[in-house]
Amino acid sequence: MPHAAARSVRRADARQNAEKIVQAAVSRLGRDAEASMNDIAGEAGVGRVTLYGHFPSRQALVEAALVRLLSQGEDVLAAIDLTGDPRDGLRTLMESGWLLLAQAASVLLAAQATLPPGRVQELHAKPERRVHNLIRRGQTEGVFRADIPADLLASTLHHILHGAATDVAAGRLDATEAPRFVAEMTLAICAVPPAPPQHD
Prior knowledge:
Structural class: mainly alpha
Distance between the termini: 94 Å
Number of helices: 10
Number of domains: 2
Radius of gyration: 21 Å
């Protein structure tokens, strides 16, 4: 086989192996947040040398798994029509975000335990910007409270999602009820507060 063709085959094999490893990490960490590199190599059907050749540390592999899930989630969230009433859009975003987070909860736990402080939130920046922009539009249109900065509201909603995921994982919250609770809490927090009573 000519050298160029051989290199092309090796590159294709390497890409396939990397893809298998990431998919195995998503699957294995999705069942067990503490899964080891050996566990993931076994799931992928590759040896340790191949695994470490693509991902030199568990931290690198956990991040790759989280990035893969966030990318898949972004495809779902980007398809949501947010051009109507901001309240309807926010409800849909939070319910959809919850479902995506529930599917990725174990991988997220692995990421929170493995990645440097702030890295998980950094990787969530794009979906958070979408929420922030929607809140800001709602504030401009007068349907969301404007006395609290949009950044702080968006950050609070992020914590609600992750708090609900933690409570579901701990058995304190029914997973089937979580989307409704998350959406209702979100809308309550963002709602325009009632005007203070007028005194004669």
